[in-house]
Write a structure and sequence with these properties.
By secondary structure, the chain is an alpha/beta fold. 38% of the residues lie in helices and 23% in strands. It is built from ten helices and 14 strands. The strands form two sheets. A ten-stranded mixed beta sheet has the order 6-5-4-3-2-1-11-12-14-13, sandwiched between helices. A four-stranded antiparallel beta sheet has the order 7-8-10-9, with helices on one face. It starts with a strand and ends with a helix. The structure holds magnesium ion.
Length: 277
């Protein structure tokens, strides 16, 4: 079984949370071609409310085809009905239905946003993380730096970190990230991660195979390159190469369909393919 983590905004769907209608059919065909051979996870910084209020009703087939939603950058596991909260206590991951100590800490961090004059309506305290909606690219980079600094200086040094998605900045506990979540569900089996932004760095760099859509953020590609990865075209995919990240020429949903096709072709050859080669 292959475990495939697919980021949300800027990857599976557009940054505004919608799909291009014409791209849904090829995506669903790609999902179907992997049935029984791969598990697909929605691996996103977003929360349960976003799935239920923004995505499920307009796109029931897409949302229904995903095996699990690994939300809040890995802090919440949601199967569409029940959810589990993952948090760090004494350096270990604990799984619970609610972590009141963590909620208390997040509320204290929220008060730091308020004290710095950040409008309340832009900041949301969730089960395991904070989401700060920052609409503009340049502001996001600047804000991320300052939030990282004050998280380090202020009340919980080395316990929380800030990271950047395609439309928001997230504050999570150190130890909770997308790779932790994908690693946990895959239990040592082969993993693939697809994502476009900085909060995808850990999953893309640590999965067995990492993939980028054509619209991936420059900051993410720079960080991968600085860590010694080469970024090559999806057409050059070679399952035996290591330290290579493959990038589709297409964007968002179309890129995901193409990448899933590549995974299907190279990592999951069916019996017929074996017989004829
Ligand atoms: Mg994204």
């Amino acid at each position: 079984m292959i475990h495939i983590g697919i980021d949300g905004n800027g990857t599976l769907y557009k940054t505004d949370g919608t799909f291009d209608k014409k791209e849904i059919h090829p995506l669903l065909s790609a999902f179907r071609s992997l049935k029984g051979k791969a598990k697909l996870y929605h691996l996103t910084g977003r929360d349960i409310e976003y799935i239920e209020t923004r995505l499920r009703q307009p796109y029931p087939e897409v949302i229904g085809a995903l095996h699990y939603h690994l939300l809040e950058n890995g802090g919440v596991f949601y199967d569409g009905k029940d959810f589990r909260v993952l948090s760090i206590r004494d350096g270990k991951i604990i799984e619970t239905d609610c972590d009141s100590q963590l909620s208390h800490q997040l509320n204290r961090i929220f008060s730091l946003f308020e004290a710095r004059g950040i409008p309340r309506e832009h900041v949301k305290v969730r089960h395991t993380s904070i989401e700060y909606a920052v609409p503009d690219d340049n502001t996001r980079v600047k804000e991320l730096k300052s939030i990282s600094e004050w998280l380090e200086e202020d009340i919980f040094p080395r316990q929380f970190y800030a990271t950047m998605g395609a439309v928001a900045i997230y504050v999570n506990q150190i130890g909770i990230d997308k790779w932790m979540a994908l690693g946990k569900v895959s239990k040592g089996e082969t993993t693939c991660a697809i994502g476009d932004s900085m909060n995808d760095y850990d999953s893309i760099s640590q999965a067995t195979y990492g993939f980028l859509p054509g619209n991936a953020a420059l900051g993410l590609m720079d960080k991968l390159t600085a860590a010694g990865f080469s970024i090559r075209s999806l057409a050059e995919f070679n399952p035996n190469e290591r330290k290579v990240i493959y990038k589709s020429e297409s964007k968002c949903t179309a890129a995901v369909a193409e990448i899933l096709g590549c995974i299907r072709k190279h990592l999951l050859p069916n019996e017929t393919d074996f017989k004829h080669t």
